[in-house]
Amino acid sequence: MHTFVVNRIVRNLVRRALREDLGIRGDITSQATIPAGYKSTAVIVAKASGIVAGQPVAQEVFRTLDKKLQYERVVPDSQRVETGQTIAELRGSTRSILAGERTALNILGRMSGIATLTGQFVEAVAGSGIKISETRKTAPGLRYLDKAAVRIGGGVNHRYALYDAFLIKENHIAAAGDIVKAIHACQDFRIGKTKRRFKVMVEVRNLEEFRLAQSAHPDRIMLDNFTSEGIVECLKYRLDGVEIEASGGINLQNISEFVKTCVNYISLGMLTHSVKNLDLSLLIQSNKG
What we know:
Layout: H1 8-22, H2 28-33, E1 39-46, E2 50-51, H3 55-65, E3 70-73, E4 80-81, E5 86-93, H4 94-124, E6 131-133, H5 143-152, E7 166-168, H6 170-176, H7 179-194, E8 200-204, H8 207-215, E9 220-224, H9 228-235, E10 243-247, H10 255-259, E11 265-267, H11 270-273, E12 280-288
Parallel strand pairs: 6-11, 7-8, 8-9, 9-10, 10-11
Antiparallel strand pairs: 1-5, 1-12, 2-4, 3-5
C-alpha cells in the first residue's frame, strides 16, 4: 500500500487550514477556560470501521502548532481500523491539542473516507487485473491529499491535473473538427511542444467513436457511460497496445458486471466528490497543571 511523506505541498496546506480555523486570535474558548501550563494526554478514536489515511498530515497539524507536542501513530496509513479502536495518541499542551483537533480530524476523516471507499472497489475487482482510479473531481485545494488517499486505499491515480496528460473530451473534439484530428493534434503537440511522453487519452461515447479513436492509436480510450454490454461490443474491435478505461454509472452494486469486460481501468468520480468521512473523535484522557 502507498504511504507518503510530508512535503512543501502538505506543509502549506496545513498552514492554510490552521489559519482558516484560528485566525489572528487563536482558540479563544481554550484561552478562556484552560490555564496556559496545562498538559493532557488524548486519543483519536475511530467511531466506524475503515482504512486509515492521513496520519502524517494530522501529525504535521500538531507539529506546526507546537513542536513539543508528541503525536504517536498507533494505526499506520493503509491499515484497517475497527469501531472504538485508537488510531493515535497525543501528549502535550492541552491548548495545542484542542487548537489542532478539528483541522486534524477533518483531514484524517476525509482521507480515511476516500481510502475506505477505494478499498471497497479494489476488493470488488480483486483478481481481475483491473485498476481502480479517481478523476479530477477533487475538493479544490485538496487534490494532493485526495489522490494520495486513493493510493493508500489500493487504487492508482489518473492524471493529476490538466498539465500532465492529454484527455480529449467532447468539447475538444467539437473544436478540433473530429476525433481523429483531435488525437493527432495532441500527438503532434506532445512531440513538438512538450517533448514529454505524456499519455494521449480520449473519451468516446459510442462504438463508432471507439473505432475512429483506435484508428489514430491513442494510449488510452475511455468508454464514457457505457453499459457492460456496450463495452464488450467495443472490445471485439480492440487493438493491441491501447488501454481501455470504463467510467460513469459504475458503483459497488453493479461493478461485477464491468469486471467481466476485462477493461484495464475503472475510474470513479465518487471516490473523491461524494466521499463520506470516516467518523473520528479526539478525546482528552487526563490533565495535569
